Amino acid sequence: MHAGGDAEVDGCPATTIGFDDTDMPWKTGKLLIRKLTAHFIILETIGRDLKMFRSARELVSSMADAMEAHQLAYDELHILHRDISAGNILISTDKPDRGILIDWDHCIFMDNLTEDRKTRVHRTGTWQFMSAHLTANPESACHGLVDDRESALHVLLYMGIRHLAHNKANAFEMRDLLNMFDDYIEVDGNPYRKGTMSKLNFMASGAQDLIFNVKPINRLIRALCGSFSTRYEQDSEDTEDDEDAEDQDLTISTLRAAQRQSRLENMKKPEWLYEVFRRYAVRLPMLSPGELDYIDNTKVLKPNRKRPLVDDLCDDADDSKLISTHDGIAGSIDAGIDLAPPVETPPRKKQRTGKK
Q1: Which of 101, 103, 183, 296 is most buried, most CB within 10 Å of its CB?
Q2: Pick the residue with more confidence: 154 or 37?
């Protein structure tokens, strides 16, 4: 850090005034509005964005470092980060394959939950990477350690889908995969948006349909999906029919219950997540200088300028509703509007110059 301090106005600290305005319409009364002081810091560049990784090994290793820092802050300082996202993990510019966890402004002090709960929302983070538990239960869910850990899985998936070679790098399937991170449902009369079952269903499937060219990435994602989906499984209830079940069925049921319990116990271990990342990072190939695992799969989603965009189709006199898709191309929810098909321009004939 080069410099920092409280911002001042006319020689006095610049503070917020919202905590005094009890009659403001945006003050719901559920949370106390804290008095805040504007603070500035001037930093130097210490890393590059996670999306600028050069190899799958660098991606996974950097995430291992970030989650180890996350765990150390939780164990030694009793601080929970609460915003594990692709934008909050950097790759060190000085040390290859090393990661840095930044942006702790949403963190909460676990030793002071009673006071912090009065002024901090119970659910926070970057929507695309929030756990399925938090997005599905907007009013009742309380942000915990396992939610941050699950966010790391969603960051890995997001980076891999966008920037590693896999079998679904076409426009239709890419859009479907990325919608998993953005989807939500508006609930009438409820100010909170609610997530869909997309993330949970993907984890429950074990990501079997998504196959990356870098094989250890597949095994890492499936291992994490298997662990995190366990927390959403319901305990099986004993019924009268269980007494008449075949011995083989009972054995399978007992084995599954033991596996589920083992996964739940593993997730409670402080070192569990970052050690899993490190174990698979060393299995990933080290690339030669100039080689890259990074690719831009999102090119297939970028707008085709030969097709109309949302702004081109909007007409104030028309009551039709338009939605914007991932690639920026207008998608109509009114059957009366048909999007123009791509226009193919015939190749130009080469003109010969000079005399025959």
Answers
A1: 101
A2: 154
Residue 31: pLDDT band with limits 50, 70, 90: low
Q: Phi/psi at 180 (nearest 5 deg)?
A: -55, -35
The residue type found at 121 is: V
Kindly state whether residue 247 falls inside one of the protein's structural domains: no
Strands 89-92 and 39-42: unpaired
Asked if 277 and 258 sit in the same domain, the reply is: yes
List residues bridging with 61 in a β-sheet.
none
* Whether residues 214 and 274 fall in one domain: yes
- 180-225 residue pLDDT tens: 999 999 877 777 788 999 999 999 999 999 999 999 999 999 999 9
Angle 43-86-48 from CA coordinates, rounded to 5°: 40
User: According to DSSP H, which parts of the chain are helical?
Assistant: 56-77, 113-119, 132-136, 145-163, 171-182, 198-205, 215-230, 247-268, 272-281, 310-313
Same domain, 163 and 203: yes
Specify if 92 maps to a domain. Answer: yes
pTM of structure: 0.74
The CATH number of whichever domain residue 153 belongs to comes to 1.10.510.10
Considering the domain architecture, whether residues 11 and 119 belong to the same structural domain is answered as no
Answer whether residue 228 shows pLDDT above 60: yes
DSSP string, 116-133: HHHHS-SS-S-GGGS-HH
What residues make up the domain containing 199?
A: 48-234+252-299
CA-nearest of 234, 250, 251 to 242 is 250
